[in-house]
Design brief:
The chain is mainly α and 124 residues long. It has one domain. The chain has three helices and no strands. Helix 2 packs antiparallel against helix 3. The protein is rod-shaped.
C-alpha cells in the first residue's frame, strides 16, 4: 500500500474563482457610471446656467455631488450583492472601479462645473 493519497475534491458550492476579466468588466462599469454622472452634472450646469445668472448654476454642483453619492451607494450595494450571490469578480470590480475613478473623474467634473459657474457669474 502506498503512503501517497489523493486529497478529496473540494465540497460543492465552495469558493468561486475570481477572474481578472470579470474584475476589469466591473471596473469598466464603475468608470462608465462616473462618466455618466459627470455628464449629467455638467449638463445640468449648462442647462441651469442658460436660464439665468451664475446663482442658478450653482445648483448643478449640488446635483453633481448628489449623483456622486448615489453612484457610491449603487456601486457598494450592487458590488456586495454580486460578491455574495453571483460573480465575485464583477462585484469586486465595481467596488474597486468606483474607488479608483472617484479620485479622477469627480475632480475633473466638479472643476468643469466651477469653471462654468464662474463664467456665467462673470468672476474668475
Amino acid at each position: 500500500m502506498s503512503q501517497w493519497t489523493v486529497p478529496p475534491p473540494p465540497p460543492p458550492g465552495g469558493d468561486r474563482p475570481i477572474r481578472g476579466r470579470k474584475v476589469a468588466a466591473g471596473i469598466g462599469l464603475a468608470a462608465l457610471g462616473q462618466v455618466l454622472t459627470i455628464g449629467l452634472g455638467v449638463g445640468s450646469i449648462f442647462l441651469l446656467g442658460s436660464f439665468g445668472a451664475g446663482d442658478a448654476a450653482i445648483y448643478g454642483i449640488y446635483i453633481e455631488v448628489i449623483l456622486q453619492i448615489l453612484l457610491f451607494l449603487g456601486c457598494l450595494i450592487f458590488g456586495v450583492v454580486w460578491i455574495l450571490n453571483r460573480d465575485r469578480g464583477i462585484g469586486l470590480g465595481l467596488i474597486i472601479g468606483w474607488a479608483v475613478s472617484v479620485l479622477v473623474f469627480p475632480v475633473v467634473g466638479i472643476g468643469v462645473c466651477l469653471a462654468v459657474v464662474n463664467a456665467y457669474s462673470g468672476t474668475s
